[in-house]
Amino acid sequence: MSAAKHVPTYTVPSLTPEDGAKVAEILQDRLNSLTDLHLTLKHVHWNVVGPHFIAVHEMLDPQVDAVRLMADDVAERIATLGAEPHGTPGALVASRTWEDYHLGRATTTEHLGALDEVYKGVISAHRAAADATAELDDVTNDLLIGNLRELEQFHWFVRAHLESATGRLSTADATTELGAARDAREAEQRG
């Protein structure tokens, strides 16, 4: 049963159980997204190859750890609201609205291009969740805004590898992970 279909019998003071359930539903989507992101980042960490391997490999582990902690904080907030966080792989796959990460073993440039798209999606959805909780629950809103600060910094780390000296991103016109990976690879080949 998802958090959206169950109104808790209690929630935090000053929220109604119905509002607590709304906030928990928003957070469940964020929990799924953060869990998926942390696993995707670790997948990239294991499968990245090429001349910049060690720099990217080592850049990703702190991101994995931080995103995993974000997921834990979100899950604990759901529980605090009186709802049940769902953290199983099956629950994540059944409820996610995005596709699985597409790249396996690939160059650093290709993975970073794809991660640019991944981060864009996660950050956009996180911002929408922060907006949706702004009037409902200050504590949850603060949690999401704190997550955004770190997520946006990690996105910047990724984008710094994709940016030209003129400030143009090699992935600027991409709309998919595979398209972004291709665009990043082609820009690197053009040198």
Give the tags.
single chain, 191 residues, mainly alpha, Ferritin, two-stranded parallel ribbon, 6 helices, 68% helix, DNA binding, Ferritin-like, DNA-binding, Ferritin-like_SF
Could you walk me through the main structural features you see in this protein, from its secondary elements to its overall organization?
- This protein has a two-stranded parallel sheet.
- Helix 1 crosses helix 3, helix 1 packs antiparallel against helix 4 and helix 4 packs antiparallel against helix 5.
- 68% of the residues lie in helices and 2% in strands.
- The chain has 6 helices and 2 strands; from the N terminus they run H-E-H-H-E-H-H-H.
- The protein has one domain: Ferritin, core subunit, four-helix bundle (Ferritin, Up-down Bundle).
- The mean pLDDT is 93.
- The longest helix has 31 residues.
- It has 191 residues and is mainly alpha-helical.
- It is elongated, with a radius of gyration of 18 Å.
- The protein starts with 16 loop residues before the first helix and ends with a helix.
